[in-house]
Amino acid sequence: MSLTAKDVEEIMKLLDSSTFDRLSLEVDGMKIELERSGASPRERPAPATPATPEPAPKSPRAEPAAAPSVRVSTEPGLIEIKSPLLGIYYRAPKPGEPPFVEVGSKVDTDTVIGIVEVMKLMNSVPAGLKGEVVEILGRNGELVEHGEVLLLVRPEA
Amino acid sequence: MPIKRILIANRGEIAVRIIRTCKLLNIEVVLAVSEADRDSLGASLADRAVCIGPGRPTDSYLRVETIVQAALGTGCDAIHPGYGFLSERAALAALCEDEGVIFIGPTAAQIDAVGDKLKARFHAEAANVPVVPGGPVESLAEAQALAEKIGAPILVKAVGGGGGRGMKLVERLEDLPATLDLASAEAGAAFGDARVYLERYVAQGRHIEVQLLGDGAGKVIHLGERDCSVQRRYQKLIEETPAPDLPAHIRAQMHEAAVRFAQSLDYRGAGTVEFLYDVARAQFYFLEMNARIQVEHPVTEAVTGIDLVAQQVAIAQGDGLTLDQSDISFDGAAIECRINAEDPARDFAPSPGRVTNALWPRGEGIRVDTHIVDGAMIPPFYDSMVAKIIAHGPDRDTAITRLWQALKNTRVEGVATNLDFQAELLDDPDFVAGGVDTGWLARRLARVEA
User: Fold this and answer.
1) Min CA distance, B205 vs chain A (Å)?
2) How far is CA B114 from CA B89, B262, B385, in A?
3) Fewest beta carbons within 10 Å, which of A47, B112, B302, B346?
4) Do B51 and A119 touch (CB under 8 A)?
């Protein structure tokens, strides 16, 4: 096989950093089609195979834990700072202390914007760019997924 | 305490399979997904999917802490590990025990007891379960004495080897000294460990395994056996129950030995004891125990009518084992084919990509376990199995006919699959006769190529 898993990961990264939504690639009979999760979904009929049960009617119980917050800012050009891993998001270094950043805070590449805890291991999350915090989406003390948006930042020109 | 919400730490067809039983039991499901599985069928069927990391398993499905954190963070009271990935890592079971999360499986100590081949062999011998005659040797004199006892042919195996590596065959005992020197030198160079052990070479062996359920307090029952001898490079392709053409007393002895082994561990949950059946000698030997649900569990469910995943959940939540051995009866025969996205014409090279069109079979006695629907992506990071097609019938011939017909009525477009190859195997007179050995498929492939 001419493409390794590593190659595919590289290609995914390239697509991610490009302005395109979809990429189709054929090498040595191996076909890869990649799509940004934000891209318009291709037609994907509802599952209707004998193997897959009909989704049962939703139980009256609450949805399992809170779903991720939805961004409000519609300003164009904002950059999303995503959680690099799944864990519990903390906006402040310790309970009772002021948060690392607030809306309006200026951040630089190395500015810590929060902590993500994985089983008592604290991982600090750097901003990764220079700019100003416009919106905070990650909720303090709650689970954030890998790749979930924590902050929106207006990059400094 | 009834389980209310389960985190499934797995993907693919087994995630969908576990979700199906959870819905029946009115248990909520949070599915842990990698970036590559965000749009999978399992993710859409689960009550919630949480992304645990990038596609590569070492960055997502194999991260013990991340999995437990995901369970805690989403309010799950239990984790189902499926098969593969972390299912047989004592570390996950142990962390669950520490954090008060129910691990749907055996205890960490039990996983540890069967995870190491030498430890498992020790436990088998202690439970009076036959193991392959052999053992470690430290000198030529010791080796010769042991070889006399076992009888030729003999395998010289490197302690550090495995999966077919570091093995040498001794057909005549007078060749033993030379082969032993060579094997030891090669083992030292290849594995940094020159120790070797001898084992009886089983020229014609069948892989037969026994399905067990244990309550964790010494009660163990069996749900019959499965014959998984159709293998290619140690990968099972076709599994069936009952094992065809097996003497009744051997079958009964295997069931008893498997139960005895699990009882000696106070085994908890669903597990499988694998045996090598030496056809020429009509003897069986303990190979290993799999401390989890098996890929091929549906054939057992088909003939017993028992939902093994529901049993796992019941045992895990403390209901104990409500079934007795006398409750288990066996109806007819069932066979499963694993459908893999791989190309038989290109030496079974994996064929990841997007499935443009998938049509799965229906019909009397047919069950399909799959996560593949139209447009589904088969990421390159994981194993290539896309579905299991299972046929059940009143007898083996009917099951074979139904399965063959089901394969013919299956369409998977966009990627190469082994569908036609599997249909050919089902039609092979040797397979139809029943009782092929683990070398059968390799010999058949060599014959076709010649």
Assistant:
1) 33
2) 11, 10, 26
3) B346
4) no
**A47·B41 Cβ contact <8 A:** yes
Whether B73 and A87 lie within 8 Å, measured CB to CB: yes
B168 Cβ neighbours under 8 A, 6+ residues apart: B155, B156, B157, B179, B182, B183
Q: Does A70 touch chain B (CB under 8 A)?
A: no
Within-domain flag for A70:
no
CA-only gyration radius of chain A, Å: 20
Q: For residue B44, what are its two tokens?
A: 């859409």
Question: What is the distance in angstroms between the Cα of A157 and the nearest Cα belonging to chain B?
Answer: 31
Chain B environment of A67 (Cβ under 8 Å): 48
Architecture, CATH, for domain B205-449: 2-Layer Sandwich (3.30)
Cα pseudo-dihedral B361, B362, B366, B372, rounded to 10: 50
- Closest A-chain CA to B346: A1
Angstrom distance (rounded) from CA B80 to CA B91: 14
User: For B51, which of A65, A118, A147 is closest by C-beta distance?
Assistant: A147
Is B54 close to A9, i.e. CB distance below 8 A? yes
Q: What does the pLDDT look like over B188-240, one tens digit per residue?
A: 888 888 888 899 999 999 999 999 999 999 999 999 999 999 999 889 999 99
- Is this complex's ipTM strictly greater than 0.85? no
Return the structure tokens found at B385: 């199995």
B139-184 pLDDT per residue, tens: 999 999 999 999 999 999 888 776 667 789 999 999 999 999 999 9
CATH architecture of B134-200: 2-Layer Sandwich (3.30)
